[in-house]
Write a structure and sequence with these properties.
- The protein is globular.
- The chain starts with 8 loop residues before the first strand and ends in a 7-residue tail after the last strand.
- By secondary structure, the chain is of the alpha+beta class.
- Helix 1 packs across helix 2 and helix 2 packs across helix 6.
- It comes from Folsomia candida (Springtail).
Length: 205
C-alpha cells in the first residue's frame, strides 16, 4: 500500500517552551504519558548527558568503533555534534576521549543548549522506548492542537548492541513520537521538538 492511499495519522501536539530545552521537555512529557514516570526536563538532560559520557568513557576500541559507526553512518547527526566527536576520536587515545567528554558534558549539560537526534537516541535506550519523529518545514512550524500525517514517522535506531536499556524497567517498550519543526531557509539542524500523542490515546500530560 502506498503512503498516498494510507489513512492519515492524527496526533495531538503537546507544546513546550521553545527555549533550547524543548527536546528534554518532550521526552519528559513522553515518559509521563507512556510510563507514568515523572522526570523533570532538567533531570532528563542530566541523565542523558551522563549516559552518553559513560559510553565514551570506555577504552574499548570495539565499543568506540560501534559508537562512531552509529553516530556518523547510521545517524545524520547535527554538524555541531559531529565536530565534537571528530575532536574526541581523532587520535583514538583515552586522553582525547576524556577531553571530548569534558567538553560535551559542559556544553550539553547546560540548560538552554538544544538537544539533537543523538540525545534522542540515547534517551530511547536509557529510558527504554522506541523513538520516532516527523520533520516539518517552515509552514508547519506553528502547528498546534491536532495535526495529521499521511506517512509513517522516521524511526531512531537503538543503542541495543552497545548497552542494555536502563529504566523504566518495563518489558514493553512504548513508542514515543516527536515532531521536529525547523525553517529550511535558515538551518535544518536547529528547530523545535514537541511530543505527539495519537488522538486515540488518553492524554496524561
Amino acid at each position: 500500500m502506498s503512503h498516498a492511499s494510507q489513512p492519515d495519522r492524527f496526533y495531538k501536539v503537546i507544546s513546550n517552551p521553545a527555549n533550547g530545552d524543548c527536546l528534554f521537555h518532550a521526552i519528559s512529557q513522553g515518559l509521563l504519558q507512556h510510563y507514568q514516570v515523572k522526570r523533570s526536563h532538567k533531570k532528563v538532560r542530566k541523565e542523558v548527558v551522563r549516559y552518553l559520557c559513560k559510553l565514551l568513557k570506555t577504552e574499548s576500541h570495539t565499543r568506540q568503533e560501534k559508537w562512531s559507526a552509529i553516530v556518523h553512518n547510521e545517524l545524520e547527526v547535527w554538524w555541531r555534534v559531529q565536530d565534537y566527536l571528530a575532536t574526541g576520536i581523532k587520535d583514538e587515545t583515552p586522553s582525547s576521549f576524556s577531553k571530548f567528554r569534558r567538553r560535551y558534558r559542559k556544553k550539553m549539560g547546560s540548560l538552554g543548549e538544544p538537544g539533537t537526534k543523538l540525545e534522542l537516541l540515547a534517551a530511547a535506550n536509557l529510558f527504554n522506548f522506541n523513538a520516532f519523529y516527523y520533520e516539518m518545514g517552515k509552514n508547519s512550524k506553528n502547528c498546534k492542537g491536532i495535526i495529521s500525517f499521511k506517512t509513517s514517522p522516521i524511526p531512531i535506531i537503538s543503542f541495543k548492541e552497545i548497552a542494555p536499556p536502563q529504566e523504566p524497567k518495563s518489558t514493553c517498550r512504548r513508542d514515543l513520537c516527536l515532531m521536529h519543526s525547523y525553517d529550511h531557509a535558515i538551518n535544518c539542524y536547529a528547530g523545535h521538538w514537541e511530543l505527539l500523542i495519537p488522538c486515540n490515546e488518553n492524554c496524561q500530560v
